[in-house]
Design brief:
Structural class: mainly beta
Number of helices: 2
Shape: globular
Length: about 110
């Protein structure tokens, strides 16, 4: 089964085509990627408008070991990662999280 999905996140429109051996795998990938999370829990707790779709974008990075990461990033810096099941398929690792560097004191402890 071939499934084509088209969606927009931020100012970019994406189009994907999936054709897996198992039809449910095809549907899982299409549905998951076509519905990225667009509500930032980090900002909502700060009283900001966290529902504006223009404030989100897809980002990606690769670490030193060659692992590729795909994220939805909000304008506040919070991200939600795309996870991959070992047996195939995707899921969004919710909720959004924002990296906060630890503050050190004089003796090196927080």
């Amino acid at each position: 089964m071939i499934v084509k999905v088209k969606f927009q996140i931020g100012k970019v429109e994406y189009e994907f085509q999936f054709d897996e051996k198992d039809e449910k795998d095809t549907l899982n990938k299409a549905i998951t990627l076509s519905q990225p999370p667009v509500f930032c829990e980090v900002c909502s707790s700060e009283g900001k408008d966290a529902k504006n779709p223009e404030d989100f974008k897809l980002t990606t990075n690769k670490d030193k070991e060659g692992n590729i990461y795909v994220n939805v990033k909000h304008r506040c810096g919070a991200r939600v990662k795309l996870g991959e099941y070992k047996v195939g398929g995707y899921f969004w690792k919710q909720p959004f999280e924002r990296y906060e560097a630890k503050k050190e004191t004089q003796n090196g402890q927080e």
